[in-house]
Amino acid sequence: MNPAIEVSGVSFSYEEIPVLRNITFRVEEGDYFVIIGPNGSGKTTLLKLLCGLLKPQRGILTLFGLPLSRYRRRALARLAALVPQAAAIDAPFRVAEFVLLGRAPHQGPLGWETPEDVAIAREAMKFTGTGHLAGRRMDRLSGGERQRVLIARALCQRPRILLLDEPTAYLDLAHQAQIMDLMEALRTERGVTVVLVSHDVNLAAMYASRMVLLAAGEILAAGPPPAVIAEAPLEQAYGCRLAVETNAGGFPRVSLVPNGKGGPRPLRPAAAATEVER
Amino acid sequence: MKAPLPVVRILRVKAILLPLLAAAILAGLSWGSGGGGPEALFRALVGLPVDDPVLADIFWKIRLPRVLLAALTGAVLALGGLVFQALLRNPLAEPYILGISGGAAIGAILGILAGLPRYPWGSLASFAGALGTVGLLVLFASWKTALGKDALLLSGVMINAFCGAVILFLISVTSDVRLFNILSWLMGDLSLAAMEQVALLAAVTAACATGLFFLSHGMNLLLLGPDAARSLGVPLEALRWALLILTSLMVGVSVSLCGLLGFVGLVMPHLLRLLFGPDHRVLVPACVLAGASYMILCDLLARVLPRQGEMPVGVVTALIGAPAFIVLLRRAAR
To answer: CATH number of the domain that B212 lies in?
Structure first.
């Protein structure tokens, strides 16, 4: 069987500045695939390459065995949906109208919605828990609501691959878990392949079935979380001292190691007590 | 999802705005310096004898082409504003502010100076001017600047200022009777309307508005931002060019016939968006009908307000539009 995504030897640069160098990996159908890496490592660029928004200068990307360049734009939009970073949305769309726009790749040029389109949109909103927001304006939503509405819009495309750019950025812990759980449900209940960019290493390690670690445009580690969440590649990628432990739930946990040079100091109960007494 | 289907919303908007347009047309025909009034118009309409035989000629030969030209120009400028606001994702975009009307005006003035007949050559020169400005805008916007999303709007403001300077230069080097032609036309003059002009603008407007209606869902998707639109299967470049060309064509022809009329493209789309929501499938027909009505009424004010003679309709649209622009700026800043 063909893998959902195959990336081989892909390089990309923005006006002479190389962003990605000789990237090779594959994503199997039904994977919960997380791309991690420090800021500016090329994560978002990689995601844009995967949904055809950018074209690589070298190398080849294939989706389900067919080169990306062979897909027509609308056909690609029915296969892979992008959930962009939750940017501000100027237009005062209602949530229901906004979600329905996700049906565009299945509709005619005027986007007349059929009862089927409406049913699919309603179902996507139910799945993401946004049904009660239908009549609300997009610019009046909280961060977590907005992110779930963006996912509902992407689900309207009925994609086999869902690509998400930092879906948990700016969300509190409960809402982060909510989004990540939603992706897990999507993968197990519908067989959608999830590819997610995140800079939250710990969260990624809890959910990913496979992951890659990007740094300075190259892959430093790839594989199931234990292969990637290791001190050596992470320290190399982030350029600081890190400790990998196992938390109470049995998941790897990455934390900064104090360097003793005016950075974070370990908190001792006695020291804390003297602070208070003073 | 209780919102009615778009078709229903379009019909509802037409049911509201068509009577408004009809009322505006009747008002525009009724009043003016030549006298008349609704009663006389009614008699003339149903074929009853009118007290003053000249009045019938005033209604049909002088006021009707003028009212129709105002309606078409209003529709074109409102649509132009709507398209540029979607294209630039900036609520302050409009053909006049972006300098596209100014570019068209330079084309038209060069046409007048070259002694070209006003149509079709004057209109073509004007379209070329509009398209040239759009080309400059696209070129400037493609340069990477620190201004980001607003680069296009700011370049447009600069182009508009430059066009203004070029127009003043052209005026200052003109001294004969053509100077009066240019000046009266520049300020937005509908009084020279003739039926052949109306027919030309009607044909162009009908074609462009129809085309824009078929691109209206694309404009909805443009509001999501370029990446999101493309990832939804929108052929972004083709859509942008189609919108730019259709809009430049109708704005160019409208400017060549009616001169510079500012702010209509700003006031109308915003008002309609507040009333009917952001769906362009509804807003395109709404802009045509409401823009037409608004311009007829502005022209009526321009004819009726002064004790003697009349003022250029551009004065009225700017007097109403500029304060409205400030109010919108305040809303945008919030």
So the answer is: 1.10.3470.10
